[in-house]
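chain below, 94 aa
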Amino acid sequence: MSQVNYQLAKNVLFQKVAEETVILEPETGEYYTLNVIGTFIVEQFQQGYSKADVINLVLKKYQVTEAEATQDIEELLTQMLKQKLFTTVDSHNG
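prediction:
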């Protein structure tokens, strides 16, 4: 059984600066910024957590509802994939 996980694209630069994170897409030279929660979400995906795991981690760390966490993560994933900042990775379980 496999599931899709997400990782930053290999050429993307991810740099924490004070209370936010800057992401640089070097081919276009475009910069994107993430707030604290967005940074936390990306870091969890980078550690190999699934989307369901990341939702649970956000619920434990921040005072949000499951619906809010799910929506925020879906929106972030959609934008990151659209801008080619994230790639999908098939992971095989068991």
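The CA atoms of residues 55 and 69 lie 6 Å apart. The chain has a mean pLDDT of 90.
thats it, cya
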